[in-house]
Design brief:
The chain folds into two domains: about 1-55, Homeodomain-like (Arc Repressor Mutant, subunit A, Orthogonal Bundle), CATH 1.10.10; about 55-195, Orthogonal Bundle (Tetracycline Repressor, domain 2). The protein is about 75% helix and about 0% strand. It contains nine helices and no strands. Helix 4 (about 55-85) packs antiparallel against helix 5 (about 90-105). The longest helix has 27 residues, at about 55-85. It comes from Hoyosella altamirensis. This is AcrR family transcriptional regulator. Keywords: DNA-binding.
């Protein structure tokens, strides 16, 4: 009988419990008060058990940041799959909604990571998240070229749009943007239209 899989499953479950606990503690107490003791207590395990899987607090939080990035990417991918069709504006709106909704879901944790733990490289992870949308956008434009500007420089335009979205999300997470989310999404949609479609239609 193979006993390895149950052990691996328990290890995976324990790691996920630790990450769930770290998410909650970080959201409630902030980076500086998010200790391995508090994470272990919230996970219902001993500190020694936590150290079987992670070397220190930042090791836990790096893995948590990776998991958040994976979750956001999965939500974006799900919306792309649901809305992939002939109307690219529907797809673009769905992707923007997915990005903002997913970031909102994790905003207390991402905000703390961004402000107090630059070593976690949250902005770099945000850029990696947008790579999925860029790849889909490039493929979609190639397959539906007649819908878009004849002179369109696809790579440069997508790079500018992604850089703008990343900068806006950074301001949004840090609370430095004075503009509400609905207005930001509307402006991003219009900028995308103007960049990609003749006469911005």
């Amino acid at each position: 009988m193979n006993r390895r899989r149950p052990v691996q499953a328990r290890s995976h479950d324990t790691v996920q419990r630790i990450l769930d606990a770290a998410h909650d503690v970080l959201a409630e107490r902030g980076y500086h008060d998010c200790s391995t003791n508090r994470i272990a207590d919230a996970a219902g395990i001993s500190k020694g058990s936590l150290y079987q899987y992670f070397s220190d607090k930042d090791d836990v939080l790096v893995r948590l940041a990776d998991r958040i990035a994976e979750d956001i990417t999965a939500q974006i991918s799900q919306q792309i799959d649901r809305n992939l069709g002939p109307d690219w504006q529907v797809l673009a709106a769905a992707v923007l909604d997915a990005v903002f909704d997913a970031v909102d879901q994790h905003s207390p944790v991402l905000r703390t990571m961004l402000a107090d733990a630059p070593q976690l490289r949250v902005l770099e992870r945000m850029e990696s998240i947008t790579a999925r949308a860029v790849d889909v956008g490039r493929t979609y434009i190639a397959l539906n070229r007649a819908q878009f500007r004849a002179e369109l420089d696809v790579d440069a335009t997508l790079a500018v749009l992604v850089a703008g979205l990343t900068a806006i999300m950074s301001d949004y997470l840090q609370g430095t943007s004075p503009i509400e989310q609905s207005r930001l999404k509307k402006a991003l949609r219009q900028l995308t239209l103007n960049a990609l479609v003749p006469d911005g239609r």
